[in-house]
Amino acid sequence: MKALRLLLLFTVLLAGSFAAHSQTKTGKVYLIRLTGYTGSAVNYHFYVDGQLICKLKNKSYSVHDLSVGDHTVNISTGGISTGKKSAPLKITVVEGKANYINVISTESGYVNKVNCQEITQNSAEPLLAKAKEKTNCLAKK
């Protein structure tokens, strides 16, 4: 009986140990959009590793927990769009640290191009102060 209790205790501790070690380590990624008047009424779609994770209007940002490691971020414009994504931006997410991704919008004649650029926390703080956080990025509203 004593051996059975000891075996049961060992099994519970071992299972708890595996659960603690299997947790995915993450870092924060801030997606920021303050593009002025260019395309301000159109949602921009943010993709991480090819998966849509957020739709942002102008003067807004969102915060996401991503697994530690290398990721690729792209943007495309909503509304009437060609469906093309921006050039990929490679980022490295580190546990407990934040990455800040800002939308860069450029006009060339009648063509509006969007790209994303990683910026520092010092550069991001004034932008975040001007923007409103969107917590449910994929909601229709």
Using brief descriptors, characterize the structure shown.
141 residues; globular; 2 helices; 45% strand; 5-stranded mixed sheet; single chain; 4-stranded antiparallel sheet; Immunoglobulin-like; alpha+beta
Overall description:
With 141 residues, the protein is α+β, with helices and mostly antiparallel strands. The protein has a single domain, classed as Immunoglobulin-like (Sandwich), CATH 2.60.40. Helices cover 21% and strands 45% of the residues. It has two helices and nine strands; from the N terminus they run αββββββββαβ. The chain has helices at 2-21, 121-130, and strands at 26-33, 44-48, 51-56, 60-67, 69-77, 89-93, 98-108, 111-119, 132-133. The strands form two sheets. It has a five-stranded mixed sheet with strand order 8-7-1-4-9, with helices on one face. A four-stranded antiparallel sheet has the order 3-2-5-6, with no helix packed on it. The protein starts with a helix and ends in an 8-residue tail after the last strand. The relative contact order is 0.22.
SSE diagram, text form:
Layout: H1 2-21, E1 26-33, E2 44-48, E3 51-56, E4 60-67, E5 69-77, E6 89-93, E7 98-108, E8 111-119, H2 121-130, E9 132-133
Parallel strand pairs: 1-7, 4-9
Antiparallel strand pairs: 1-4, 2-3, 2-5, 5-6, 7-8
